[in-house]
Amino acid sequence: MGKETDLLIEILSDRAKPPLERLRALVHVFIRSECKEAAVRVALDDAAPLYRDAPEAREAREAGDPVIEGFMEQVLPDTPVSARAVIGDLIMTTMTTVGKQFSEIPRTRDEIDVYSDAMAEMLCAYLLSLGAK
After folding, report:
1. How many Cα atoms sit within 13 Å of 11 on the Cβ side?
2. For residues 68 and 61, what is the distance between their CA atoms, to the nearest angstrom?
3. Could you give the domains of the chain?
4. DSSP letter at 79?
5. Taking the model in full, what pTM does it have?
6. Alpha-carbon distance 73 to 67, whole Å?
7. Digit-coded pLDDT (tens) for 67-98
8. Can you give the C-alpha Rg of the chain in angstroms?
9. From CA 90, how far away is CA 86, in angstroms rounded?
């Protein structure tokens, strides 16, 4: 599994912390990681289509699926499974897309922290608006 998948599993699986606190932590760590790895990611853009289709990439994505599903069940237990799947996918897609775009410009630690705080609060507000526990 990839570093990002391991990180996702570790943070979202820590049931000692409330779900929204875990989501905030995940956003911060993820955005920092995206910024740190931006130069490598840009260099590999040409290989991305090959990588995205590789069995290893698919396996890494699928390894995180049950963790995201479990997290979504905790945070939105009264929401139908199909809706939770869409919500979880939307959150993960938002994080990866925004993280990639944000990290394309070199950022200071303060800029990363401010942006991560704002993104985490946006995602938490979304979940709270849906009845998050």
Report:
1. 18
2. 11
3. 3-129 (1.10.357.10)
4. S
5. 0.82
6. 10
7. 899 999 999 999 999 999 999 999 999 998 99
8. 15
9. 6
